[in-house]
Write a structure and sequence with these properties.
3 domains; 21 helices; 0% strand
Length: 315
Amino acid sequence: MRVAFALILLVFAAGCLNGNPTNSTPPQTNSSSTVIETTTTTSTSIDVSSFTNASSCESVPGKRDRDTCYENFGIESNDSALCEKVMDRIKKGVCFWSVGKATTNPLLCDRIESAYEKDRCYEDLGALMKSPQICDMIQNDDGKDRCYLTTAIENSDPATCRRIKQEATTENCFFAVSLLRKDPNLCDMLIDNATKTSCMFNISIMTLDATLCQKLGVTAQDSCLLEVGGRTGNYTICDILSNESLKNRCLNDAAVAGKNVGTCDKITDPWLIDTCYQTIGLALNNSSICDSIKYPPKKRYCYEQTGEPEKAKRT
């Protein structure tokens, strides 16, 4: 789901989480994080890529080369039985993780010896399969919370948000799911007032629902009504705004959105009335609308742009 993915990126970019389980990949045995531990096991004296099948691995002399052979064929063929033949625990873990991800088999994560990598494997598979039940298998609380967050967003499931222990992550979860479901009632689950207001504001705009705007504080309500009124072209929404300047802006936006010159007439600011007429006149390429403009330079420009050069000269 494109929207869900975007929201995940939004939450992560806010700096509320560490890591990205949806993009995690099995560690490479020659990565810098495992240089000390794997220096003696990653270098090979035999080009195992030249072997045509896994049965050739048994004849490979040397444990490290044989392990590399079984690991490569295990991952290439998605065969966990070949992973089992790998002796080095890191290579074996990489093999099980890779095959588990490729075959969407979380049971293979349990065969990884390292507790950290096992948790990473479950987190990866939980996100991939959108399964909070797989997230349950994670021992580390931070990893488990990340997994729950990802699956909750992917499934638009507020119930999964309730499994999260960290309050900040829970807030992010309910916020994201509220927007995905466009459900203002879920905004009430938020503790932080600013986040709750932002949640309600965003859903009001997404649904173009002025009644939701009216549940906000004055400042947020005005911004919300201005946006909804302008987008919908419904000038009656503008009447709810708290001051004349905002009402005029709203009426102008509503008039332009609906290409309705009648709404321009409701504006009390003379300059903005002319701007309203001019914008609609140009949009409709209708010089008769230019007739209502009072300010000569605006009227002249309107005539010029709507194909009435003679009228423009006389203005």
